[in-house]
Design goal:
With 235 residues, this protein is α/β, with parallel strands linked by helices. It is built from 8 helices and 7 strands; from the N terminus they run E-H-E-E-H-E-H-E-H-H-E-H-H-H-E. The longest helix is centred in the middle third of the chain and has 29 residues, at 90-118.
C-alpha cells in the first residue's frame, strides 16, 4: 500500500500540507502541486496551476517520471473570494468555480488513464461543510464545493467496477492561517454553532483522508465524510 503514489493539489499549506505530511509519515511516495513550486520536505513539489490544463499535464509527466503512476489523488487546491450576492463580480464567481471545481476536473481527467490502467485508485475531493450547509456571502465557494459531490458520485458510477473509489471529505472550521486572522467576536460566533465547541486541526482532516485512501475503505465510494464537529449534522 505504501508504494502507491499520492498527489495532493495545493499541498504547500493549510489542510493540503497536513494531508501531504500525513501520507509521508505513513511511508507513501508523495507529490504535491503548488503555484509557486514550494512543498513539504520529503515530497516531490511540482509547480502547477489547476486553472491551466497544460501545466497539469506537465506536472503529471514529471511525477510519473520521478515517482510513478498516481494512484491516490487528493484534489484539495482551492480559493475563496467571498462577498454578498449583489456584490460578487462575474470574474470572482468564475475564478472560484474555475479553481475549485473545474480545477478538480482537470486534475482528475489527467489522472484517470493511470487509475484505469492500474485497476486500483482512490480519488478524494476536499470539499467543505459550506458546500452542503450553505453560507451567506459564499455563493461562489459553496457552489464550487457542492459540485464536487456530484463529480465524486458520477465518477463512482463510471469507474467503480475498475477498483477506483471516489469520496468527498467536507471539513468544517479548521484551525489554519485563514481562521487565525478572524476577529475574536467572529470566532466566538462560529464556535457557538459547533457542537464540539472547537475548531478542528488540519491533522484531523488528514487522518480521515489517509483512511479513505487505505484498503480499509475499499468498499466506500460516493460518500461525503464530514469533519466538522457536528456543525453540518449530515447536510
Amino acid at each position: 500500500m505504501e508504494n502507491r503514489v499520492v498527489l495532493v493539489t495545493g499541498g504547500n499549506r493549510g489542510i493540503g500540507l497536513a494531508i501531504a505530511q500525513e501520507f509521508l509519515t505513513r511511508g507513501y511516495p508523495v507529490a504535491i502541486t503548488s503555484r509557486d513550486g514550494s512543498g513539504p520536505e520529503g515530497a516531490l513539489a511540482v509547480k502547477a496551476d489547476v486553472r491551466d490544463s497544460e501545466s497539469i499535464a506537465k506536472a503529471f509527466q514529471e511525477i510519473e517520471e520521478k515517482l510513478g503512476t498516481v494512484q491516490i489523488l487528493v484534489a484539495n487546491a482551492g480559493i475563496t473570494k467571498d462577498n454578498l450576492l449583489l456584490r460578487i463580480s462575474d470574474e470572482d464567481f468564475i475564478d472560484v468555480i474555475d479553481t475549485n471545481l473545474t480545477g478538480a476536473f482537470r486534475v482528475l481527467k489527467q489522472a484517470t488513464r493511470g487509475l484505469v490502467k492500474s485497476r486500483w485508485g482512490r480519488v478524494i475531493f476536499i470539499s467543505s461543510v459550506v458546500g452542503l450547509y450553505g453560507s451567506a456571502g459564499q455563493i461562489n465557494y459553496s457552489a464550487s464545493k457542492s459540485g464536487l459531490v456530484g463529480m465524486a458520485r458520477s465518477l463512482t458510477r463510471e469507474l467503480g467496477g475498475r477498483g477506483v473509489t471516489a469520496n468527498v471529505v467536507a471539513p468544517g472550521f479548521i484551525d489554519t492561517e485563514m481562521t487565525a486572522v478572524l476577529p475574536e467576536d467572529q470566532k466566538k460566533t462560529y464556535l457557538s454553532n459547533i457542537p464540539a465547541g472547537r475548531f478542528a486541526t488540519p491533522e484531523e482532516v488528514a487522518k480521515v483522508v489517509t483512511w479513505l485512501a487505505s484498503d480499509d475503505a475499499a468498499y466506500i465510494s460516493g460518500a461525503v465524510i464530514p469533519v466538522d464537529g457536528g456543525l453540518g449534522m449530515g447536510h
